[in-house]
Amino acid sequence: MNVLTACTLDCPDSCSLIVTREAGGAIHVRGNPDHPFTAGFTCRKARTFAERLQSRQRITTPQRRTATGWQPVSWDQALDLCAEKIDEYRKEPVSILHFHGEGAKGVLKQASKLFFAMLGSTQVKGSLCDAAGYLAFVADFGSRQNNDFTDILHARRIVNWGKDLMRSSVHMASMVRKARQKGARVLTVSPGGDGSEAFSDDFVRIKPGTDRFLACAALRRILDEGAVRKTVLPSTHGWKAFRDLVMTQSPEVLGVACGVDKEGVERVVSYYRQEEPTATIVGTGLQRYAFGGENTRFINALAMVTGHIGRSGGGSYYHSHSLRHFNLDWTKDPENKPRRTLFMPLIGQGIREAEAPPIRMIWVDGSNVVNQAPDALETARAFEAIPFKVVVDAFMTDTAERADLVLPCALLLEQDDIEGSYLHSFVHIVRKAFDPPGEARTDYWILSELGRRLSPPVILPLPDDIFRASLRSPSLDLSLEELRERGYVRANEPKVAYEGLKFAHGDGKYRFPEALHEEPPPPEGFPLRLLTLIRGEAIHSQIAPENQTVPPTAWVGSECTALGDGGLEEGDEVFLVAPNGARLRVRLEILPGVHPEVVVYRRGDWMKLGGGANQLIKAGLTDIGRGAPYYQQYVRVERIPPQVDSKEIHIF
Are 424 and 149 in contact (CB under 8 A)? Predict the structure, then answer.
């Protein structure tokens, strides 16, 4: 029997899926051929998720930490313990911290936000993902609209600023291929190592984190040539100040700052000075730097002044909000209780510094925060110091290992929901294809049962009431029953964002960036920028333990100075060492085309298994959005001393 459902992984494509389970237990997942976006294919992440569902290491009963190790307990025992602790700590509700992540998408997943808002707990804000970029779009355009994903087929040129088309979105990659087949030319700007050359006609290798300088150099050339589209300027605010800012920049200094020569700058300019439409793709990687928002804003400014915003075939593509088409007013506490806020990228520091009262309990859902937040060792120590810790997860992750209670949750294909996408405009019904194993339960069930045990109780709305409330949105015009019957629907959204140059700011005008900041130099003795890039086979840290490689692999380019002078060769095991003293054992490999000042690491593996790059990464905040500047980190490569056993794995 086939089940029509949808993927709820934290992936832009949000595919419509057809799921089949054979009598022998084998699970087959394929893209829905009738869906206008999914078009019959999906990525490796969705196709291999069945392995994760059926992993022998999956937790299927509640687990409580004891003096002798983990012990299974009943749901009644687990929830009674949680209720006892919450009732004790809710006398000072901000002593309870709720950390909600985006390990799974969907409106029903937002119920935990309502639950803890009604308690008045401490909350987290900021982002471990893309906040600097999306708030840059809000600063520029007033909102985060994109042209419809199919509109890129009308582009005559496409500039891809750092998006890994091989791994991040197979359907955007498909659209770029189709656009090329129709005659569009594609330029990729990247430090290399992402495989985007296969999707490109031209390539500019850039020093990581310096996209704003390249965009500014191109803007300077546009201004010098008088190639600004003057018809767009009445729709902007602050043009004179921005023009003066750009004109005070030396083209030579900008070129050195981004590591791009005059030919490379000219290549970028040639794509934007055209009358025919040029589409801009902004990758999330370029906003994971200290000035990630500024990187994004200068790219948008280049697309704006050359006349490629607000038109078919043009536009600037970035993440929209996956829940933008839903009404989420139901997630707000009716009493609007005051709450304390900690920032996700500084979570370890925030827990440690919280006072009056300190954090006494944490509830984690949808996140492996100890593994995923910067300064992972500090996060782990802060987490361990909290008196009572509950983690909702399906595996004994780096975060779950440090909990007092682990509650097993249902995963993708094992629960109902409604979800949207941060790339396309379709909204899907998510249907359960089969029951979760053992005693695993949905996040909603766990909180509903817990809420009834509290005194006074915290009662969540019923799932169908949540679905109906979420569908009461200007973007949607159908009932829950109609959505269930149809399976998916395209939300009401313009095909062309900001058509007619009407922007979402109060005055309807576009805003330019106000400053251009220098790039901070690397700390002495740490010459390599650590880029912890996306994987193709898994999202975040959702890698089955049996599929993790020990030691993990790190890649450098053939021009990297870590090779040669140090006598290192491909295949050598070395330490990556950070200024904070943390070190990570890796196997060094060569990746052609990577910038010589870069070491690439595919993120998401676990510290307990010998991986975990975030132990090397200093905690901080991006210039806007309170995001995590992961790619601001520098490291060095060290030989492993002879006395260190080559099979040693450092377990944190």
Answer: yes
Report d(CA 458, CA 335) in Å as an integer.
13
CATH architecture of 131-318+507-511: 3-Layer(aba) Sandwich (3.40)
Which CATH number is 63-128+326-418+436-472's, of 3.40.109.10, 1.20.1300.10, 3.90.1720.10, 3.40.50.740?
A: 3.40.50.740
Which residues on neighbouring strands pair with residue 390, listed in sequence order? 363, 405
Bin 500: left if φ > 0, else alpha if -120 < ψ < 50, else beta.
left
The pTM (predicted TM-score) of the whole model is 0.96
Asked: is 528-639 a CATH 2.30.30.240 domain? The reply is no
Task: Look up residue 70 and give its two tokens.
Answer: 């983990």
Residue 104 CA, distance from chain mean position: 12
631, 529 contact by CB (below 8 A)? yes
Residue ranges of the chain assigned to CATH 2.40.40.20: 528-639
Per residue in 279-319, pLDDT (tens digit) is 999 999 999 999 999 999 999 999 999 999 999 999 999 99
- Tell me how far apart the alpha carbons of residues 375 and 346 are, in angstroms, rounded to a whole number: 8
pLDDT in tens, 239-264: 999 999 999 999 999 999 999 999 99
Per DSSP bridges, beta strands 16-21 and 27-31 are: antiparallel
Core vs surface per residue 623-640: b (16+ CB within 10 A) or e:
bbbbbbbbbbbbbbbeee
Q: In the chain, which residues fall in CATH 3.40.50.740? A: 63-128+326-418+436-472
* Contact yes or no for 419/430 (Cβ under 8 A): yes
Token pair for 335: 């009493």
Q: How far apart are the first and last CA of the chain?
A: 45
Segments of 182-241 assigned E as strands: 185-190, 202-205, 236-237
The CA dihedral of 357, 363, 364, 365, to the nearest 10 degrees, is: -140
